[in-house]
Predict the 3D structure of the following.
Amino acid sequence: MNDPQYSTDQIIDEVLRLFRERGDSEYGGEAVTQAEHALQAADLALEDGAESTLVVAALLHDVGHLLHRLPDDAPDYGVDDEHEELGGRWLEKRFSPAVIEPVRLHVAAKRYMCARDPAYFELLSEPSRLSLKLQGGPMNANEVNEFEKNPYHEDAVRLRRWDDEAKIVDKVTTPLEGFVDHLRRALAERTDAS
């Protein structure tokens, strides 16, 4: 649950600091950094007309990678960093479920999409295919049914699509500070929900 010890300004400062300090790390074998990937995903959410909560979820969907201390090549050694769970726990103290749940579900969404549309697998990059194996592979029928029961599953699928597309080298994006207003709106929603 949201922790009242974190003010809106503290959370925004923390997000900006995380990206400034750790955002230049490699994004899991891709040719972009964590920050480049996050900013591209958030821009795609904006282009798709997403609400601020989902724009922030796109920006922070891989925050778990910025929090752990595993090496960038951990998947090459069979290690699943479970960044979606780590990120979800971090977000729980700061944001509403409209931000938290799509982030927590974005890995499951990849597994879901592979089960629902076998052609989707062909769109995945090599590093994403490797992580899919570590994450359990395509869902079975029971997992698909459970996933579809989650009220945030459609947002997670939207986020997953942006995640898959957000890997373009040298793409010009909105700067990190350009998302501060979206962060404020998403954080205001957590107060409204309390």
Remarks:
- The longest helix spans residues 97-116.
- The mean pLDDT is 88.
- Residues 9 and 119 are 43 Å apart (CA to CA).
- The chain has one domain: 8-193.
